[in-house]
Amino acid sequence: VYQVFETVAKKYDIMNDSMTLGIHRVWKDILVHKMNPCPGTLLLDVAGGTGDIAFRFLNYVRSVRQRQLQRKLKHHQNLSWQEIFESYQKDKSNSLGDSQVVVCDINREMLKVGKQKAQHLGYSEGLSWVLGNAEELPFDDDKFDVYTIAFGIRNVTRIDLALQEAYRVLKPGGRFLCLEFSHVSNPLLSRLYDLYSFQVIPVLGEVIAGDWRSYQYLVESIRQFPPQEELKAMIEDAGFFKVDYENLNFGIVAIHSGFKL
Amino acid sequence: VRCQHYPPLRALQASAALRRASDEHTKEPLTSSSQQHFDSPPAGHQPEQEPQGPHPSYTGQGGQESEDYESEEQLQHRILTAALEFVPEHGWTAEAIAEGAKSLGLSVAAAGMFHSDGSELILHFVSECNTKLSKLLEKEQKLVQLGEAEKKPIDEFLRDAVEARLKMLIPYIEKWPQALSVLLLPRNIPSSLNLLTSMIDDIWHYAGDQSTDFNWYTRRAVLTGIYNTTELVMMQDSSPGFEDTWRFLENRVADAMTMSNTASQVQSTGEAVVQGLMGAAVTVSNAETSRAVR
């Protein structure tokens, strides 16, 4: 798995766009919307290599924070100009509201690409990059508010260990969110999807990234991944409550959510 | 095959949790499933241990499953109750719920358990108010039965009951229009209507209504109309102590009393209901435009 991603790292984003015809951006947006984070949330994004989820999280939190500040300012109708100025200054320096995201990935190359992207896009605060294995996270217990793993869990050898680690590092009340390819139940769509996956994607892989085999592996790993209900059961086994999943695009992708209660 | 797989894992977690919770006395109340117990646990009492206590088999081992399911609901109940004190500041939103969860020692992400528009919080509040009203009316009834108080005439009884119920809104009155508009969303209408009708039912029950004929419906509809219109008047009332609202209420109840003795009873019922709906529609559109302006 490590080697696959080493070769794939640089072209990862481009391949994502071409394989999913850009819909992966929508999927990731939906994930962050579902999370609905408020300022002050501490997010751990595992296998988040190039930082897609992390950037969306920061954007979301920043806009929520702005709205909060606007509301507060409206309440300050009766203050003098000096007081308003002072409170504005104080809040301005806290544009993220203490929210932070830690991006953890097993692959150094992916992290490197992510850091470059962050610099390029201008994300400077609230972001950390850590090298780590999802089956054995280098963090203490009860640390994070939200744990996300987008398109990463199928690459983990022992999913149950990863789920247990997720449970461990989450605070009580914390949320586990998993965005992953899943099983399409609609038979017609399933045939079209299979056709697309096995014929088109490896070809794209060869053309764009010069690597047929990695993308062949990718498509096969999607097929081998447990379906929605089974994954739900595994998440429940790890100790999460209120486990639920939401199918996007008829099951091509599913978001699983669970709470550590 | 699956069922066999689970029990050993669950037992391990359960025994570990039991050892942790051994000095906590919350195991007993959970098995006896009494709601009262959970309304008053001290806040600093390691809240996260409570739901972790009866960990065993969320996925089903008969009796134990329902026990566990209940503790999830109870936790949600506690979070919503805690969230109420943040409503004046944050409104009926997921933010208030997040602050409530934080105050209980849980992560702010726990607010994700609820809908992002705060519907559950509002419904929870309404249900709590209705429960409080029931208890109040029951207490009064006991006093009357014991002969320690006079039985009130119907119009006074209705007036007092509606006033008592509406007074519970006072701490949240600023954000209540927002809550009303959320309650009128199609998704929430079944639940909110349910809560409303059961409250009206309750009031009539304690008022001594024993009718089994068409009167039952007209009485309910009339009181629903009175309650809704008074609530809407209260939203726009800026008089000291809401005296305008109570005067309005008095007049409406008096109207209902006189009308109930005439043949125009059925017509006035229809009118009352229509009035209630019109008032509701006006409030929603006002709330929406004022929200948009903001």
UniProtKB/TrEMBL annotation, chain A:
GO terms for biological process: methylation. SUPFAM superfamilies: S-adenosyl-L-methionine-dependent methyltransferases (SSF53335). InterPro entries: SAM-dependent_MTases_sf (IPR029063), UbiE/COQ5_MeTrFase (IPR004033), UbiE/COQ5_MeTrFase_CS (IPR023576). It holds the Pfam family Ubie_methyltran. One of its GO terms (molecular function) is 2-methoxy-6-polyprenyl-1,4-benzoquinol methyltransferase activity. Keywords: Methyltransferase, S-adenosyl-L-methionine, Transferase, Ubiquinone biosynthesis. The keyword Transferase applies. CDD domains: AdoMet_MTases (cd02440). It comes from the Eukaryota. HAMAP family: MenG_UbiE_methyltr (MF_01813). Component of a multi-subunit COQ enzyme complex, composed of at least COQ3, COQ4, COQ5, COQ6, COQ7 and COQ9. Interacts with PYURF; the interaction is direct, stabilizes COQ5 protein and associates PYURF with COQ enzyme complex. Methyltransferase required for the conversion of 2-decaprenyl-6-methoxy-1,4-benzoquinol (DDMQH2) to 2-decaprenyl-3-methyl-6-methoxy-1,4-benzoquinol (DMQH2). NCBIfam families: MenG_MenH_UbiE. This is COQ5 protein.
Automatic annotation (TrEMBL), chain B:
GO terms for cellular component: mitochondrial inner membrane. Pathway: Cofactor biosynthesis; ubiquinone biosynthesis. InterPro entries: COQ9_C, COQ9_HTH, Ubiq_biosynth_COQ9. Residues 14-74 are annotated as: Disordered. The keyword Manganese does not apply. The keyword Mitochondrion applies. Keywords: Lipid-binding, Mitochondrion, Transit peptide, Ubiquinone biosynthesis. GO terms for molecular function: lipid binding. Residues 29-38 have a biased composition (Polar residues). Its main location: mitochondrion. Pfam families: COQ9 (PF08511), COQ9_N (PF21392). Membrane-associated protein that warps the membrane surface to access and bind aromatic isoprenes with high specificity, including ubiquinone (CoQ) isoprene intermediates and presents them directly to Coq7, therefore facilitating the Coq7-mediated hydroxylase step. Participates in the biosynthesis of coenzyme Q, also named ubiquinone, an essential lipid-soluble electron transporter for aerobic cellular respiration. Belongs to the COQ9 family. Homodimer. Heterodimer; two heterodimers of COQ7:COQ9 come together on the same side of the lipid pseudo-bilayer and form a curved tetramer with a hydrophobic surface suitable for membrane interaction. These two tetramers assemble into a soluble octamer with a pseudo-bilayer of lipids captured within. Interacts with COQ7; this interaction allows ubiquinone (CoQ) isoprene intermediates presentation to COQ7 and facilitates the COQ7-mediated hydroxylase step. This is Ubiquinone biosynthesis protein. The lineage of its organism: Eukaryota, Metazoa, Chordata, Craniata, Vertebrata. The gene is Coq9.
